[in-house]
Structures are given as C-alpha cells and as structure tokens.
Write a structure and sequence with these properties.
Blueprint: H1 13-22, H2 24-31, E1 35-46, E2 49-59, E3 64-70, H3 77-93, E4 103-108, H4 113-120, E5 127-131, H5 139-156
Helix pairs in contact: 1-2
Length: 157
C-alpha cells in the first residue's frame, strides 16, 4: 500500500524512490516478512560502465536478491530488458554461491495486460510486473507469486 507516501499525482521516479527510502520500514512491512534492505541506486559495473538498480533487497526465505525497478509510466517492454540485465549482473557479480537466482519486481504506474503477456512470454528470469496505484498487491498474493516464479525458474534449470 503506497498511500503512506503521500505523493502528488504527477511524481517522478526519484520522488517515488526517495519517498520509499524515507519510509523504508513501512515499505518492508508492506512487502511482507523476510525482506532485508540492501540499498538504493545499487551500483553494478558491467563492461566498465556503472548501472544503478533502483532498490535492492534480499529475501531470507527465498534466499535470493530482489531487485526493484520503479517506473512512473505505463509498462513498456523495454523495461523488462533492463530488469533482466540487472538480474544477470546481480547473479554474476553479487549473488553468493549458496543463494538462489535473483528475482525482479517491476513497479509501473499502469500495465496493459496484453503487452505484459507478450513481453513476458519468452522471458526466462523470475520477474513480477505490477502496477502501483499507491498500493501493492496483497502481501499473500505477492509472496505466492514470488514462490511461483522461483518454482518456474527452478524447473527451467
């Protein structure tokens, strides 16, 4: 539930990120049990170029890194490519041997379900695309989706 952020209707991604960081405890409680905050604008370097993941968490039960990409616009397929790039960078450069593959959560202002379906159809990375209208899906649904994504990822390996 993002209503606790009190953001204006036309806010930027930076506004959203800073509001979440300033209310990190509330945000983690909304995500559900087991999330540990690692950092904002988390830097990963690939090919000598720095890239920045909006928010990075670790999930204790799933034993994996969870990257959040924040978008204040409607979902665009290219957002998924960027998130997959981040997940690959995390798995190659940050993930420890005992940890499971990283999971991505893309939060957009809105989503066209058909566009999301096409974009996700050939996607191999465990990813959740969710719209935010100052609220997240119910905690139990988010946890269930994360477990489903992890199971799908394990089956593909």
């Amino acid at each position: 539930m993002f209503e606790f952020l009190n953001l204006p209707e036309n806010h930027s991604e930076k506004d959203l990120q800073h509001a979440l960081i300033s209310k990190i405890k509330d945000f983690i409680l909304e995500l559900g049990d087991g999330f540990i905050f690692i950092g904002e604008e988390y830097r990963v370097t690939v090919g000598g170029t720095d890239f920045y993941i909006d928010l990075l968490f670790f999930h204790r039960d799933l034993q994996c890194l969870v990257a959040f990409e924040l978008k204040t616009t409607d979902f665009m397929p290219e957002y998924l490519g960027k998130l997959n790039f981040y997940l690959e960078a995390l798995d190659r450069k940050v993930k420890r041997k005992h940890e499971r593959p990283s999971v991505g959560i893309l939060l957009c202002r809105d989503q066209n379900k058909e566009v999301v379906e096409y974009a996700m159809n050939r996607n191999l990375s465990p990813t959740i695309i969710s719209e935010y209208q100052t609220f997240l899906p119910d905690k139990k649904i988010l946890e269930q989706k994360m477990h489903e994504l992890f199971e799908q990822s394990a089956e593909k390996q």
